[in-house]
TrEMBL record, chain A:
Entry-linked PANTHER family: INNER MEMBRANE ABC TRANSPORTER PERMEASE PROTEIN YCJP (PTHR32243:SF18), MALTOSE TRANSPORT SYSTEM PERMEASE-RELATED (PTHR32243)
ABC transmembrane type-1 domain residues: 72-265
Protein's membrane topology: Multi-pass membrane protein
Protein name as it appears in the record: Carbohydrate ABC transporter permease
Segments traversing the membrane: 12-34, 76-96, 108-128, 140-164, 185-209, 244-265
Pfam families xref list: BPD_transp_1
From TrEMBL, chain B:
Domain spans labelled ABC transporter: 4-234
Keyword Magnesium set for record: no
UniProt keyword annotation of Nucleotide-binding present: yes
Keywords in alphabetical order: ATP-binding, Nucleotide-binding, Sugar transport, Transport
One Pfam family hit: TOBE_2
GO MF term (any one): ATP binding
Residues annotated as signal peptide: none
InterPro entries: AAA+_ATPase, ABC_transporter-like_ATP-bd, ABC_transporter-like_CS, ABC_transpr_MalK-like, ABC_transpr_MalK/UgpC-like, Transp-assoc_OB_typ2
NCBIfam families cross-referenced by the UniProt entry: PRK11650.1
Protein name (database record): Sn-glycerol-3-phosphate ABC transporter ATP-binding protein UgpC
UniProtKB/TrEMBL annotation, chain C:
Subcellular location: Cell membrane
Entries under InterPro entries matching the protein: MetI-like
Similarity-based family: Belongs to the binding-protein-dependent transport system permease family.
Organism: Pseudomonas farris
Record-given protein name: Sugar ABC transporter permease
Length: 280, 381, 320
């Protein structure tokens, strides 16, 4: 083998090794969670890298906990409502910001961007008061409302980017046809924005599904908790004896749907994330 | 009958003046083409008429009614966009009927009108297709159908053929001409393509730098351009421009052509001073060539063969060669020495500002009969 | 005022005169914005203002409206013999130090690792899109879940990390990652880096793919060493995107809460400003004091955000 070919082969080998390390780093923790979750509690404390005799008792235990199922249901309701609300509010806003030139547009955009940078804890006490005043404390509505603080700026920003990319002649054609802004938005632009809506909705869904601080603060009882809080509060007999198998089973259960979504919609997610960040 | 009237229309964007004091009258049923180089304001003018852009000053009247503040749908105009701008998610039928639906047209008459429009444009068999399933020419026709469906009195076209390839463009051009004959509606058409302008227009409006340079029939504009700009803009190859100096002003001018020496031309220069720099315009087809003897005449520097004709480039010792349109059979070749014969009736003379000097009405009689300008002294340069 | 020329009014009219279409669109634009603006006013602007107000009162959680105005006493107060208030609370300054420590180290690591991974994934190879999808997994996993998974992996007795390091001979005795005051911050950083590198990588990849190709071809034709190309061409061109990513991450890190709360609970060696503020707000029910801490955190974040906006605008100006 000539030195040049050897060098090339070594480079290739090194490259694939790097890819391997990268994949291991990215995927191993999740894989290890699966491995742990499939162990009976007796085998829990022996480290093993492979799945031997999968044991589903942890999953059975988790799924028998009414509070955990409740939490999944709550999380779903909250996330779906937040997505719907945020998409509806941001769709009209994105039309205004992305397609109409008006004075104050820049200010509104800056405000939206500013809100997305808020530390959540900065509004915690004020929001707590608002929620209690509206009688929403310890309800899903408290979370749906409060989650708009981080989903809305994001969806507005990303949809505005997508909206701005649609050809302006399309809208002028609609104007010539006598369409009002509302008709233009709903009957001409909206049907073309579906891909963007899916992307943005997905990102908002993930953000809402994963939120912890508000969920921890604005809900009190097991029946109202969302998944992240439920998992954080799973505890054993003593603080040092967490039921790790159960915990990992719960973790895997709430994460698998997200992982599947990410794998399916990878391209869309990437375009949404980068549209929000780079083109702003 | 005046269909549309522009009265001192102005448009400004930021600090830039896009249109300056544009006044224009367009008769009902007329086919008017706005033509000019890019950035001359022709598209803006069309958009002002459509109601997509605001008029900054002046009035726009349709049927004698001031429409500055009316919305496009109230103006009775339809528009065909450069990129077609078809609604990608709607079928051809829905594209055409969208405007009618919004106008709350009654169902059966809506259907009737869509079908009629489709029939005129030969779209009957494509009504259920989506735009992406159509060819370029078909999309173009759908765009026209959408503009026509509401039966507007005025149809606006914004460079509608620029996205088509050359052969399709000729075909669609003919279709638009036929459509105009059939519908009899007023059409305003923007293009930068002079062939489209010449072939389609009843009336051409040449715009330059936001001003109207000249309005007239294609023939008027070609044969009697009011300015050097119009003269140079229409015609291919372009009109030849030669610098000349006014020797003796008068009803017929004596000019020093530098190339041919002092020559009498049938233009009225009574109000100009002797010594003024003028420009002589000669269309390539208004020069004929004759073989020169010995070292007389000028040298052919290049010959472009186009099949039906040839363009002969002549070295006149100016910055640009003089181009002359010849028959192929003449067989000129680079290096030949030729004498030039100019068609006096069809020359053009422009003053320093580019405005055409008026032709002396009796020019032909006052010039010695049948004496073409000879190139005899050209070689003496 | 005299009207001297027909053109003069045009300049004034330009600002006020629009077509009916444009007028209608602007009106519609504001109408369309109203629901979003109202919503943000309700959940962001008003609560923020209330937080500012609370920080000047001695309100408590049971009755937030019942607090009385006490000026800046929550921040700093002199009772005759000694100072009290957040600004002299060693716990607060500890939280500030922790937050800054966390931000600097984790953002630094994330940007460097993200850039390296992006460079690796910018090479075309079979299966690239699958790899790109797989490295997104840490990003999609809820922070709480990743904190739990890692705290299991970092478990002092049964954790795989200790097991691995012991068997490789890197350490002699198991490390108490989440309990040891010296190590717990590193545990937090490890988890945060693991979770957010994919995000930085994605931004970097997108930026890399926007770079002009011909620069590289020219460099390759000229035979310039790839490392030199990276330092001289790639990195300067990537700088804007790198800065954006870093700012996003810095703003996120400064308000860090979830990871720390779950991984190390209320341990003072990792307590961040957000954890400190929430502890006072919710656990101690001292809304006034907690709000003061929140306000300070908000101010820090706001200053950095404004700096970013200012720099961003400056950069735009330089470019144009």
């Amino acid at each position: 083998m000539s030195p040049r070919l050897l060098k090339k082969a070594l480079l290739r080998l090194g490259f694939w090794c790097l890819i391997g390390v990268l994949l291991l780093y990215a995927v191993f923790p999740f894989y290890y969670a699966i491995v742990t979750s499939l162990k009976p509690s007796s085998a829990l404390f022996e480290v093993s890298y492979w799945i031997h005799n999968p044991d589903f008792s942890n999953y059975a235990a988790v799924l028998h906990q009414a509070s955990f199922l409740r939490a999944i249901g709550n999380s779903l309701v909250v996330a779906l409502c937040v997505v719907t609300l945020a998409l509806f509010l941001s769709l009209t806003a994105a039309y205004a910001l992305g397609r109409v030139k008006f004075r104050g547009r820049g200010t509104v955009l800056m405000m939206v961007l500013g809100v997305s940078m808020f530390p959540q804890v900065a509004v915690l006490s004020g929001l707590f008061e608002v929620i209690r005043a509206l009688g929403l404390y310890n309800t899903s509505w408290a979370l749906i409302l409060s989650y708009t603080i981080f989903t809305l700026p994001f969806t507005v920003w990303v949809l505005t980017t997508f909206m701005g990319q649609l050809p302006h002649e399309l809208e002028e054609a609609a104007i010539m046809d006598g369409a009002s802004p509302w008709v233009t938005l709903t009957r001409v632009l909206l049907p073309l924005l579906w891909p963007a809506l899916v992307t943005t909705g997905l990102l908002a869904f993930i953000a809402a599904w994963n939120e912890f601080l508000f969920a921890l603060t604005f809900t009190l009882t097991d029946t109202q908790r969302t998944v992240p809080v439920a998992i954080a509060l799973i505890s054993g007999g003593s603080p040092h004896e967490l039921p790790w198998g159960l915990l990992m089973a719960a973790s895997v259960l709430v994460t698998v749907p997200l992982v599947i979504l990410v794998l399916i919609f990878q391209r869309r997610i990437v375009s949404g994330l980068t549209a929000g960040a780079l083109k702003g | 009958m005046i269909k549309l009237k522009l009265d001192n229309v102005n448009k400004q964007l930021g600090g830039a003046r896009i249109l300056r004091d544009v006044s224009l009258e367009i008769a009902a049923g007329e086919f008017v083409v706005f033509v000019g180089p890019s950035g001359c304001g022709k598209s803006t003018l069309l958009r002002l008429i459509a109601g997509l852009d605001s008029i900054c000053g002046g009035d726009l009247l349709i049927d004698g009614r001031r429409v500055n503040d009316l919305e496009p749908r109230e103006r009775g105009v339809g528009m065909v966009f450069q990129s077609y701008a078809l609604y990608p998610h709607m079928s051809v039928y829905d594209n055409i009927s969208f405007g009618l639906k919004l106008a709350k047209t009654e169902k059966t008459s809506l259907r009737e009108r869509v079908l009629k429009t489709a029939q005129i444009l030969q779209l009957d068999k494509l009504l259920q297709r989506k735009p992406k399933e159509l060819s370029g020419g078909q999309r173009q026709r759908v765009a026209m159908g959408r503009a026509m469906a509401r039966e507007p009195d005025i149809l606006l076209f914004d460079e509608p053929l620029s996205n088509l390839d050359a052969s399709l463009r000729v075909q669609m051009r003919n279709e638009i001409a036929r459509l105009h004959d059939r519908l009899g509606s007023t059409m305003i058409y923007v293009t930068h393509d002079q062939v489209e302008a010449m072939t389609l227009a009843d009336k051409i409006v040449v715009l330059n730098g936001g001003r109207v340079e000249q309005v007239g029939s294609p023939r008027e504009l070609y044969e009697r351009p009011a300015s050097r700009f119009v003269a140079g803009f229409l015609g291919s190859p372009r009109m030849n421009f030669l610098p000349v100096r006014l020797q003796t002003p008068g009803e017929t001018s004596l000019v020093n052509t530098l190339v041919w020496g002092i020559t009498s031309l049938p233009f009225d220069s009574s109000n100009l001073a002797a010594g003024t720099q003028l420009t002589l315009g000669i269309r390539p087809e208004h020069v004929s060539l004759k073989a020169a003897e010995g070292t007389a005449g000028v040298v052919v520097t290049a010959v472009e063969y186009l099949g039906s004709e040839t363009y002969v480039h002549l070295d006149t010792r100016l910055d640009e060669p003089l181009i002359c349109r010849c028959e192929v059979s003449a067989g000129w070749q680079a290096g030949d020495r030729v004498e030039l014969l100019l068609d006096i009736d069809n020359l053009h003379l422009f003053d320093a500002d580019g405005a055409a000097l008026s032709r002396h009405p009796h020019a032909i009689e006052t010039l010695p009969d049948g004496v073409p300008l000879r190139s005899a002294r050209a070689s003496a340069l | 005022m005299s009207v001297s020329s027909t053109h003069a009014p045009c300049e004034e009219l330009l600002l006020t005169r629009e077509t009916p279409v444009q007028r209608r669109r602007v009106r519609a634009a504001w109408l369309f914005l109203t629901p979003m603006l109202l919503c943000l006013a309700l959940v962001a602007a008003w609560p923020l203002l209330r937080t500012f107000w609370f920080s000047l009162t001695d309100a408590n959680l049971a009755d937030t409206g019942g607090g009385t105005f006490i000026g800046f006493s929550n921040y700093l107060f002199h009772n005759g013999s000694s100072w009290s208030g957040i600004l002299v609370d060693p716990q607060w300054w500890n939280a500030v130090r922790n937050t800054l420590h966390f931000t600097v180290v984790s953002v630094g690591l994330e940007v460097v690792l993200g850039l390296l991974v992006a460079l690796l994934l910018n090479i075309k190879f079979t299966g690239r899109s699958l790899v790109r999808a797989l490295i997104l997994i840490p990003w999609a996993i809820p922070t709480i879940v990743s904190a739990k998974i890692w705290s299991w992996m970092l478990n002092d007795q049964f954790g795989i990390i200790n097991h691995l390091m012991l068997s490789l001979g890197l350490i002699d005795a198991p490390l108490a990652w989440t309990a040891d005051a010296d190590l717990s911050m590193w545990a937090v950083i490890i988890v945060d880096v693991w979770k957010t590198v994919p995000f930085v990588t994605l931004l970097m990849l997108a930026a890399l793919q926007m770079l002009p190709n011909d620069c590289y071809e020219a460099a390759r034709v000229d035979g310039i060493h790839p490392l030199k190309v990276f330092w001289r061409v790639t990195l300067p061109l990537l700088m804007p995107a790198l800065l954006v990513a870093a700012i996003f991450r810095i703003l996120d890190s400064l308000r860090v809460f979830d990871v720390i709360y779950v991984l190390t609970s209320n341990s003072s060696s990792t307590m961040s400003m957000s954890v400190y503020a929430r502890q006072h707000l919710v656990e101690f029910q001292d809304v006034g004091y907690g709000s003061a801490a929140s306000t300070l955190l908000f101010l820090v974040v706001a200053v950095i955000a404004l700096l970013y906006l200012y720099l961003g605008r400056r950069q735009l100006e330089v470019r144009s």
